[in-house]
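TA notes, week 10

Several of you asked for a full example with nothing omitted. So below is the full record: structure tokens for the whole chain, then the designed sequence directly under it. When grading your own attempts, check the secondary structure regions first.
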């Protein structure tokens, strides 16, 4: 043992010398950084005269920032190094509040953790029907679960930073953000590799057609590449903000440039809230069906109302697009399943036509002529994940306004025209018979203009700091479009159970679903890669290409309006009940 020590004494001396050198270097760096902080306090002070920030903690001391002045215990802080440190934390906090990166506003981190764990279990069940090599691919890259598992802690750290900013909190948030972004890019690469490995030249570039468009593996791969490029931009932005926190002034973007984008104030368009609801009886049929399903399966059904969308990538009709919303809570799951469906019409597979599918043949043998089919199912529209997130965020925004209107009351009627307009819009949204995307968009435009034109500090004096924070959360919720993300994951879990059930039935006659097809139609990248979230991806990113509408008959689809001409409402309800019953025989909730 002693000879071993002698042998490595030179190495030990080298390591001690290296650590000493690094330690001296760090002391010099931090000494220089202190000087940089101190020399730029005046510039930061001018910025913070227009912004507000909660009290900031460094170590065991709490500091306030007001009108560009730092204080603690009621006394103004004069130490330039301390002032600069507080300003850096305030800057980091405000930048991530006004221009968030990978934010999930409107999603509960604790429930998200539970939903992701359930998703992992559902993938294990789904992959059980496949050979071990395919099973490994599905487990590793069918969904970006390793990335998703970083999101609850990231959102928890983000909320903590914004509500109780501190230096230690800024470090924790930065670490979790970099971890999430790294896993995001890794997951994209793994999914692209899986597609290359599972696909073949003969089928890789085939068109996979949906009612409103089509996709190919080439389109799929190009979108994954675009997401990776966007993630790289996010990572550089995050690194720049952290560099600013650490003292690099060239990395500090002016906070004024991060205020919400403004929209035109000229004129007010007619809102969808003034339009009558759809004249079809789809909503009553759909509600009746869901209540029946929930009762039979011992689940809790809760209707959430109707959202009227100004545009839809998935519904093959002209607008406005009315979406009925509800949740289903399984007694065994702590997280409900968020569902939405178009009530402009309802769609059915016509099983009377010949089909090669063993599943449909089996349904025919049980006397089913028409199988209810939701156009909002993710596999019917690759972008349904974006639409689901949009609908959920509109619902959460409308609910937030109804629960806590910020500008109602006589006190605000004498304020600025923008405040009066926001008060009027809050009243219209609260009293409307259903949620209007157009009305919500106008409201977000109004409060964005209000915030940009007035400034945080001035608006806080007219209202309160809490009102300003609430406005900014609503603006972010609208743009991030990831509300109820935990509940939307539950929808994918339900779909996985259907595939697993059908696979089990089909094993007697044929192989399970082609795994390459599963990736293109069932991996829901628009949902799981947050493709509609502007804090992740800039611009609209679609996973399928629009083209001239394909006749529904090409998909063996008929509408409720078609069936109304030949069948009574009770007969149609029976088709839906039979559809649900056949799914229940598979041990899953269908439709």
């Amino acid at each position: 043992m002693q000879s071993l020590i002698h042998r490595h004494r030179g190495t030990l001396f080298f390591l001690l010398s290296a650590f000493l050198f690094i330690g001296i270097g760090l002391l010099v760096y931090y000494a220089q950084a202190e000087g940089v902080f101190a020399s730029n306090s005046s510039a930061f002070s001018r910025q913070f005269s227009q912004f507000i920030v909660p009290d900031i903690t460094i170590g065991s001391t709490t500091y306030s920032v007001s009108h560009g002045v730092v204080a603690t215990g009621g006394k103004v802080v004069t130490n330039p190094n301390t002032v600069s440190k507080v300003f850096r934390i305030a800057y980091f906090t405000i930048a991530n509040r006004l221009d968030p990166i990978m934010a999930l506003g409107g999603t509960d981190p604790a429930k998200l953790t539970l939903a992701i764990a359930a998703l992992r279990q559902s993938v294990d069940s789904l992959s059980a029907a496949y050979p071990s090599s395919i099973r490994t691919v599905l487990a590793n890259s069918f969904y970006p679960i390793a990335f998703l598992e970083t999101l609850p802690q990231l959102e928890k750290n983000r909320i903590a930073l914004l509500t109780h900013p501190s230096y230690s909190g800024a470090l924790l948030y930065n670490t979790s953000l970099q971890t999430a972004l790294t896993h995001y890019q890794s997951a994209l690469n793994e999914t692209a590799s899986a597609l290359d490995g599972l696909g073949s030249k003969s089928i890789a570039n085939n068109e996979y057609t949906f009612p409103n468009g089509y996709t190919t593996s080439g389109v799929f791969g190009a979108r994954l590449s675009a997401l990776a490029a966007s993630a790289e931009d996010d990572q550089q932005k995050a690194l720049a903000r952290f560099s600013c926190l650490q003292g690099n002034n060239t990395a500090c973007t002016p906070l004024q440039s991060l205020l919400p984008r403004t929209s035109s104030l000229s004129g007010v368009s007619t809102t969808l809230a003034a339009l009558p609801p759809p004249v079809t009886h789809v909503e009553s049929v759909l509600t009746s069906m869901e209540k029946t399903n929930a009762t039979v399966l011992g689940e809790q059904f809760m209707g959430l109302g109707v959202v009227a969308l100004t545009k839809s990538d998935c519904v093959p009709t002209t607008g406005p697009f009315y979406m009925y919303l509800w949740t289903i809570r399984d007694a065994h799951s702590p997280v409900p399943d968020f569902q939405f469906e178009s009530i402009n019409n309802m769609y059915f597979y016509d099983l009377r036509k010949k089909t090669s599918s063993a599943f449909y043949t089996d349904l025919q043998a049980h006397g089913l002529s028409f199988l209810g089919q939701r156009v909002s199912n993710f596999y019917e529209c690759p972008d349904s994940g974006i639409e689901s997130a949009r609908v959920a965020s509109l619902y959460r925004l409308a609910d937030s306004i109804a629960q806590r209107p910020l500008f109602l009351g006589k006190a605000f009627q004498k304020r600025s025209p923008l405040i009066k307009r926001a008060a009027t819009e809050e009243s219209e949204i609260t009293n409307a018979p259903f949620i209007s995307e157009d009305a919500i968009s106008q409201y977000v435009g109004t409060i964005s203009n209000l915030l940009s034109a007035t400034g945080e500090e001035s608006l806080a004096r007219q209202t309160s700091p809490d009102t300003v924070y609430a406005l900014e959360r609503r603006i972010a919720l609208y743009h991030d479009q990831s509300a109820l993300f935990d509940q939307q994951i539950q929808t994918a879990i339900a779909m996985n159970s259907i595939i697993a059930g059908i696979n089990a039935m089909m094993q007697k006659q044929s192989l399970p679903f082609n795994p390459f097809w599963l990736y293109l139609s069932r991996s829901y990248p628009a949902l799981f890669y947050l493709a509609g979230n502007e804090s992740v991806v800039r611009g609209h990113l679609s996973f399928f290409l629009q083209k001239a509408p394909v006749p529904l008959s090409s998909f063996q689809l008929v509408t409720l309006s078609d069936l109304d001409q030949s069948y009574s409402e009770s007969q149609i309800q029976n088709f839906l009940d039979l559809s649900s019953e056949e799914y229940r025989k598979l041990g899953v909730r269908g439709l």
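Confidence is low (pLDDT under 50) at residues 1-39, 264-269. Use that as a sanity check on your answer.
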